[in-house]
Design brief:
Shape: elongated
Number of strands: 9
CATH superfamily of the largest domain: D-Amino Acid Oxidase, subunit A, domain 2
Distance between the termini: 28 Å
Number of helices: 2
CATH architecture of the largest domain: 2-Layer Sandwich
Largest sheet: 9 strands, antiparallel
Number of domains: 2
CATH class of the largest domain: Alpha Beta
Helix content: 10-25%
Length: 168
């Protein structure tokens, strides 16, 4: 397992109302998905043109007047200090989809390290015969579920169903 460094920029941009995320590797570039919700609860999605380096994610997530702009995905990088050049690149890429976001005041910079593996580990570990040890007491059961990298949130619905099936 190794880290993948991710950096995002939080800006004050209350006019931004659309969630935008670049499409996955299987989509024909350049493309992004824009998702919006109306006050009536109606949600819509549309494919929009985007220009971003193939090796860097691009997303815009509005949150109560502030907007998360992302991001980076830098494997085997341990530095948790915000990089001014990464921040500028993030804002510049997001400005291609939402002109004017580059002039929004920066509220915060975040850097985190995601656990990454070449393959995701989803595995049941039961040191005792499932449910009991030699004295008849219930033993611990551990389910390993990690190594998703930056896709953990996006793929969580798939993995939690798998984990629950392992618990049965």
């Amino acid at each position: 397992m190794y880290p993948a460094r991710g950096q995002i920029v939080k800006v004050a941009a209350p006019w931004v109302r659309h969630f935008i995320m670049t499409a996955d590797d299987d989509a024909p570039p350049p493309a992004a998905v824009s998702i919006s919700s109306s006050s009536t609860g109606h949600t819509s999605a549309q494919l929009v043109a985007a220009t971003a380096p193939e090796d860097e994610p691009m997303y815009i997530f509005p949150r109560s007047g502030e907007v998360l702009l992302g991001g980076t995905y830098q494997e085997r990088q341990w530095n948790t200090d915000p990089s001014p050049s990464d921040a500028k690149a993030i804002v510049d890429r997001c400005n291609l989809l939402v002109p004017g976001v580059s002039s929004a005041p920066v509220v915060k910079h975040w850097v985190g390290l995601r656990p990454v593996r070449h393959t995701v580990r989803v595995e049941l570990f039961a040191p005792f015969k499932l449910g009991s040890n030699s004295s008849g007491r219930t033993g611990p059961i551990v389910i390993h579920n990690y190594g998703h990298g930056g896709a953990a949130l996006a793929e969580s619905n798939v993995w939690w169903v798998h984990v629950i099936s392992m618990m049965r």
